[in-house]
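ESCALATION

Customer reports they have been waiting on this structure for their group meeting. Please prioritize. Original submission:
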Amino acid sequence: MVAPAALEKTMKPTFSIRILRIFLLALGFIIPVCLPHSVAANTRAVVIAGLGGNVEYNSAFDEYSESIATALRSVSSAPEHVTYLVGPDANRSEFLNTLDSVSEEIKSLSDGSDAIDAFVLVMIGHGNMNRDGWQFNVAGPDVSVGDLIAALAPIEVANQVVVASTSASGGLLKPLTQPGRTVITATKSGGEINAVRFTEYFAESMNSAAADVDRNELLTVSEAFRFANDATQKYYEEQKLLASEHARLAGEDSVNYTLATLGALREAKDNPAVAALLEERSVLEKSFYEVKVSKPELSDEVYYQQLESVLLKIARLQKIIDATITNGEWAQ
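Update from on-call: job pushed to the front of the queue and completed.
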């Protein structure tokens, strides 16, 4: 489990990388502090807005979930790859049936060019804890932690993200965390039972340039989490209230996984020229990670020479991408 302070450390480059980045900036290139995986070619996502209990909460949950679903479509190959459950459809039976269908879909596409690269589940609403564990409040019978574990188990995809933005959601951290899955909860434990503010800011992060720390128009899981967590804590500080929620993130790949595209890159999603350039950048980013992994086997001189070479290639390619995306908000 990663608390905000620990997450900050994972996103900071070493001193040597800082020097290299300054050198590259001097040449006029913009290099991200931390390069995320490229936009997944085919992300499958499910977003569900739970039972609000009153008109105000129902309206807010619907708004936030719709905003998040829209953003997730920026990293899916087709709009129908993001399932959005709201209103009468946001019930236990429909939700579990949807997850079952997603599992079968992923299996059926696993050997083809349309294979699913990642799975994202976002649950928004109210939750509670009882002696059997966490419960997600939906129309009709609640969704239990046991339901969720059983429904997620057959989903066979390497990259998984589960966001539980509900009260008491910290009770999901231990039962849901596993290799290859990043889990975000709005609270640190099942004991934080008040309605959460985190959801509002997480939805905002999915469409916000301010959340994009490295300004590459690729919003990673860790960037979205940090933005939402910081904004949540700021709210309590400004209102002079004792914080009743403390978001948590568990998973080692949150820095690398792209949750949404932003700005001009999102607008250019269907541009074939941009798509080809992004694929080329994906290859270079893979080379970057291969160099990073090989560091223990290389001398410092060779390591930084190889690192400099691949980063310069990425920087030059990024300038071409920026020039290709017309009217890019952040093109430089």
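Sent to customer with the following note: The radius of gyration is 20 Å.
Escalation resolved.
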